[in-house]
Design a protein that fits this description.
The chain is an all-alpha fold and about 500 residues long. The protein has one domain (about 25-495): Amino acid/polyamine transporter I, CATH 1.20.1740.10. Helices cover about 75% and strands about 0% of the residues. It is built from 18 helices and no strands. It has helices spanning about 30-40, 40-55, 60-85, 90-100, 100-135, 145-160, 165-190, 205-210, 215-220, 240-270, 275-280, 285-330, 350-370, 375-410, 415-435, 440, 455-480, 485-495. The longest helix is centred in the middle third of the chain and has 46 residues, at about 285-330. The radius of gyration is 22 Å and the shape is globular. InterPro entries: AA-permease/SLC12A_dom (IPR004841), APC_superfamily (IPR050367). Keywords: Membrane, Transmembrane, Transmembrane helix. It is a multi-pass membrane protein. It holds the Pfam family AA_permease. It is found in: Membrane.
Length: about 500
Amino acid sequence: MSALVPTTAPGPAGQAAPPRALTGRLGPVAIVFMVVAAAAPLTVVGGAAPLGILLGNGVGFPALYAVSGVILLLFSVGLAAMTRVVPRPGAFFSFVGYGLGRRSGLAAAYLALLTYTTIQVSVYGYVGFILSGTFASLGLPVLPWWLWALGVVAVVGVLGYRHIDLSSKVLGALLVGEVGIVLAVVAGVLLTGGAEGLSAAPFEPSTVLSGSPAIGLMFAIAAFIGFEATAIFRDEARDPERTIPRATYAAVIGIAVFYTLASWGLVMAWGPSHVLDVVAADPGGMIVATTATYLGTAGEVIVQVLLVTSMFACVLSFHNVITRYQHTMSNAGLLPAAVGSVHPRHLSPHTSSFVQTATAAVLVGVFALLGLDPVLQVFTWFAGVATLAIAILMAVTSLAVIVWFRRTRVDSRRWNTLVAPTLGLLGLAAAAVAIVANFPLLVGDVDAAGAQRFGAVSAVLLGLVALFPLVGWVQAAILRRRRPESYARITEAIG
């Protein structure tokens, strides 16, 4: 990678002011690695896919990854079209602002921060739990989950502070390991013919529509969280008008194909007639048991290690996304000016990275003081919040794309600017409705019989999804009235 030069502005007394614009030469492959790593492929295959099979439409669940891929590919068509005409790195913040106005853009920015912060902290809870149990099983001193989580926060903070190229290399290496072990398991299933022979049963219409496909779609859509963040790396991309759309399409298609194939492999590994019994007995251990069956003890050990690195890659990737959102918002005058600075040597949003590291550490500490369970509460609750928030964000972004291109007519391609975004909007709106309807189940808010209920937990978490965009909307209104110069900087950031 060639040398990078930060953008600076003249400072007082002829001195250069600290740089505030991110620069770089990331190609589509590097960006794909970062956003696909955020989706945590192995964690999804090992955790979300079994739950989708168990609580969703059973054997037909693999088809819902393909359906989700189609919906999100339609969404990506509009996203790519917007990327070509909106030269801003704010992603949802910028696109919604261009299409629906600055207040809506700022509301989207705060909802995006909630999305990525909650998904990140949920995974910190899970990885802390896994590390605590793993090291205890090796006879080492038993340490609480939150101490392990804080250790991971520190490592992520160090990598996030440095140049993005370092993170992309780490994420690329970890992603290759994740994908490799899953493909090895699928290959083992293919070579042996699975438990009951190979078939297309998961894709038969009657199977796909069995059980609760709406709940299944909820889990499938959640597995894609992260791919949409390609646009946030615009300033650090080489030839962004081409790199960002290519990376977006590649990420969606790659994730959809991988998840569909991997979940089909899980079903075939145990057989359509027995897979529900297996997943009901131990959904969290299904991927480990499957790997042990088809790859032996060595494969079992490898997949356990890679499950931890998968979650680490996830939090590192989301850390990079959040820091860039904060950096963009700071340069728009919405967060303290220091958050928008760029390190003169590492060329990273180092202050924003430090702020995000501190935020994650404080949240982990608060959850520890409250005595929350790292899996049943921290992971389950906040992953549920992120799932609903991202569906709403993408639906609103699709609407913004449609409105922007209908108003400006800067792109005459109807498929790219109207048809595909409209179809994506309908699919995402349906997914958001399904998530709200089944939200208690998603966050574990159930009664003694296991039936979902809209109790206090659901009310508080749904309240967060409503509160954060409201804060952004109100801030925009206040800035317009009391600090017009700051409001003008929003204009510079999102048009």
